[in-house]
Sequence to fold (201 residues):
Amino acid sequence: MEAAFKRRTALRGAAVLAAGAAALAGVAAAGEFAELAWRASAPGISPQPFRTRIISGIPAVAGYGTAVTLGPVIVQAISHQSFPLILRSAGYTSLTATVTAAVVVTDARGLSGRLPMTIVFPRVTVPTTAAETVLTGTATLTGTPQLPAVRNPGTMTIKVEPTAKGAVTVFNNAGAGTAITSTITLFPVNGDPLAATIEVR
Fold:
């Protein structure tokens, strides 16, 4: 999704960018995206933590009173090397996933708003060896965001909530799918939830 906005709507635009479910990546400095670690759990299943990162869609700077083009926000989820072997041993060869999460956007004055989001990861084939499986998805806002007005220059932060929901469908060679729902938590639980920053100037 692409959007153009001015400074008064910078929070809304930043949130569109922020999705980062999951999905949900960290940033070392404005425009320099790092990674966040997450753990997914479901009945009888507790795989190794996976990592996420934002690939594109969030600008480092939003100019004061100027239009900015945003999105689409592209997010990657990277599995542990053991993950494809676990799936393959159970007879599954591919998967697709959807993550439902939320971010909190806070302006330079401390005014904040919560924005729910969904990250959809298209179907991918898992490796046949012990290797990372990379899913690349697109994040979008869902529901009605509640945003404060942004009237101050400074650093805008976008932080993920530490708990999310995952819906994964795994497929066998015949194409039959099995749905699995999971709870996803930031790892470690008290880890830094910062997903991105935007400088409003």
